[in-house]
Each structure stands twice: as structure tokens, then as C-alpha cells.
Protein: DUF3899 domain-containing protein
Organism: Gemella morbillorum
Amino acid sequence: MKKSTGLLITILPIGLMTLLLFFLPERYLGTGTMVIVLYFGIIMLVLGKYIKRGDNAHLINGIDISFKEAKLPENIEKYSKDSKIVGNICFGMSSICFLVVIVYFIVINI
């Protein structure tokens, strides 16, 4: 993932968490944090699905290729293995985020 894309994805939850620190009572901070974790889980799920298609090698860090070159059939075949690995990592991270949120809300409601 390019640095600019990563920064844009992380700006919103950092801003939300800062607002939560100032405006929410202390008892809601855990829930607010879990909302941010859920946001990261959704972003990772969408990003993993998008990258796993194979024609988005330009999003993977370490592959210096333009958007138009990434859409060429020979480059799709060339970078498909890397795309699947990175996509699976994103899927795994989203699963962990969802699991943390689910466990947190189950523990809170007991």
C-alpha cells in the first residue's frame, strides 16, 4: 500500500479517537475504541478483497509499477501471487479485528 493511501485511511479513526477522548465519559472509551477497531476491520476487509483481485499490484508496497501497467494481462499474471498473499494478510487482519470486537462486546454483556 502506498504511504498516502495508508495515511488517508488512518486519519479518520485517529481524529475520531481524539474527539472521543475529549467528549465521551470514561466508561464509553472502551466502546469507542472498539468502534475504531471495527472501522479498521472493515477497511482491511475491503482492501483485501480489492487487492486479491490481482490487477491492483500498484497498491502493494515494494512493487514500483504504474496503475496502467498493473492492468496489463502479463503483469496481472506476474504479480498475482503477491496480490493473493497481501490480500490474505488483509483478510486475516480484518478477521482478528472482528474477533476482538465480538469478544469485547460478549465480555461486556456478561
Summary: The first helix runs from residue 3 to 23. The mean pLDDT is 80.
